Amino acid sequence: MVTTVFVTHHHSDHLISLDDLAITRWMEWSEDPVPVVVPEGPGARYARRCMDLWADDIAVRQEHTGRSSAPAVSVTAFEPSGEPQVVWERDGVTVSAVMVRHQPVEPAVAYRVDTPDGSVVISGDTRVCEEVEQLATGADVLVHEVALVHALDGTAWEVLFDYHADSTLLGGLAKRAGVKTLMLTHFAPFPNDLFPVQRFVDDVRAGGFDGELVAGDDLSSVTLG
């Protein structure tokens, strides 16, 4: 069961289905609200209001099931900072956050999860930046978005991906941070015949990263410890 959701920023592809998660959880697993940790700002405002449109649907479900509770999210908002800060702790697990560079989307954050078995950093959406490098230093796994920014200059794609992480620069960041495993995710553009996954991998290697490299796909996993 999902116990806590961590939101990086308020782009739709990073928030969509939060309401569905809350309703499904309420129907099938638990009547407790879904805990959501989110930087204060547009993402927090969305999380607080995301169930409002479903009031009529929820009323029907309550009548049908006889429940007095309702699906909901419980928002824990924090003021984002350019320096890493702890935003959540439980059972030996600590989650820290730092602001990243995804302008004009503000705020946007990355998270670091430190556990007894190891550490994982999730970049969210961002350009390659020193804030993520600082957060990821010494991490076992860095899960980072990747874009073929340099290959898209002068094309219609350029403006869509200029606030994402250049694949070659990402290789340099991962090398300097000393991460053991780099998992690529949120590929831009989506891999296809013109832009195959291997092209992203080759760019990251050209940037200097020589550790374990995983091209993430749905349900990809890496084991800590």
User: How many DSSP-defined strands?
Assistant: 10
Helicity range: 25-40%
Query: What topology, given as strand order, has the largest sheet?
Result: 4-5-6-7-8-9-10
Task: Return the string of H and E elements.
Answer: EHEHHEEEEEHEHHEHE
Q: What would CATH call the homologous superfamily of the largest domain?
A: Ribonuclease Z/Hydroxyacylglutathione hydrolase-like
* Spatial separation of the terminal alpha carbons: 22 Å
Number of helices: 7
Q: What is the radius of gyration computed over CA atoms, rounded to a whole number of angstroms?
A: 19 Å
Ranges with pLDDT <50 over ≥5 residues? none
What labels describe this entry?
26% strand; Metallo-beta-lactamase, Chain A; three-stranded parallel beta sheet; 7 helices; globular; 2 domains; 225 residues; alpha/beta
Plain-language structure description:
- The chain is an alpha/beta fold and 225 residues long.
- It has 2 domains: 5-78, no CATH class; 85-215, Metallo-beta-lactamase, Chain A (4-Layer Sandwich), CATH 3.60.15.10.
- Helices cover 28% and strands 26% of the residues.
- The protein is built from 7 helices and 10 strands.
- It has helices spanning 18-28, 42-49, 55-65, 130-136, 158-161, 167-177, 197-206, and strands at residues 5-6, 34-39, 73-78, 85-90, 93-99, 109-115, 118-122, 141-147, 181-188, 212-215.
- The protein has a 7-stranded mixed β-sheet with strand order 4-5-6-7-8-9-10.
- Strand 4 and strand 5 form a beta hairpin.
- Helix 4 (130-136) runs parallel beside helix 6 (167-177) and helix 6 (167-177) packs across helix 7 (197-206).
- The longest helix has 11 residues, at 18-28.
- The protein is globular and about 60 Å long.
- It starts with a strand and ends in a 10-residue tail after the last strand.
